[in-house]
Amino acid sequence: YKTAKYTVEQPLLIGGALAGAGGRLREGYSAYGLPLGEAFQLRDDLLGLFGDPGRTGKANADDVCGHRPTALLAETWRVAGDDDRDRLRALLGRRDLDEDGLHAVRDVM
Q: Treating both helix axes as pointing N-terminal to C-terminal, what angle do 99-108 and 23-50 enclose, rounded to 10 degrees?
């Protein structure tokens, strides 16, 4: 949510303010910008875990090893059972996570 605000919604609102947009138009910018920003962030999370690092420029394990609170992790946690949550607890934040550990995280997500 935070990323959606500063990557999409806030720039739209700033542009609107500079152009003299009224309140109703600014509300429209927010209604458009927040879902777009959330979609962007979810795609970024998916590419960060499942994408090709050669194409994305992101190491697959960055968010997992850094135990970053991504939208993907939040949704996974919401729907995961106790066993899967235990698996994630054991793996998230480990700087020494190997390919097998990363594969286990991917399986849960």
A: 130
pLDDT tens for 42-87 read 898 899 899 888 998 888 888 888 888 888 888 999 999 999 999 9
DSSP 67: T
**Residues 42, 69 within the same domain:** no
Say how many domains are in the chain: 2
Report yes or no: 104 and 87 within 8 Å, Cβ to Cβ: yes
pLDDT digits (tens, 9 = 90+) for 6-26: 889 999 999 999 999 999 999
Q: pTM of the full predicted structure? A: 0.75
Q: 66 phi and psi, to 5 degrees?
A: -85, -5
Amino acid at 31: A
Are both 65 and 47 inside the same structural domain? no
Q: Which residues contact 104 (CB under 8 A, 6 or more apart)?
A: 87, 91
